Amino acid sequence: MMQAGYIDHVIDRDKFDLSDRDYITFFDIYQKAKNIHDRDAEVLTLVDMAVNQLSQEELSSMKDVLICYLDSRIPDSDKTVISTILEKFIKR
Question: What is the pLDDT of residues 17-42, one digit of tens each?
């Protein structure tokens, strides 16, 4: 199944020394990471790299950009301005 690209697997709860609360937190994090991976694996990789390599201030700036994109009160024209500025610095 791994060769076919599946990452789903059964998590054997007995292998982990987790309380019920910890298990729920663990499963919640796993599910969020899986959802991100399923949508765009590169985003998950970039987030992992960011939290390991960037300062807290830089991470805060990244969160602010994401919040702007998610905020429905911010007009699309303003979001386009943000995208234009980012494109100036991004070399893909």
Answer: 667 777 788 889 999 999 999 999 99
Look up residue 75 and give its DSSP letter. -
Residue 26 phi/psi, 5-degree rounding, is -60, -45
Segment 12-21, tens digit of pLDDT: 656 666 677 7
| Secondary structure (DSSP) of 7-71 | ------GGGS---HHHHHHHHHHHHHHHHHHHH-HHHHHHHHHHHHHS-HHHHHHHHHHHHHHH-
CB-based contacts of 69: which residues, under 8 Å, 6+ apart?
79, 82
- What is the DSSP-derived secondary structure letter of residue 86? H
- Extract the tokens encoding 12: 């054997």
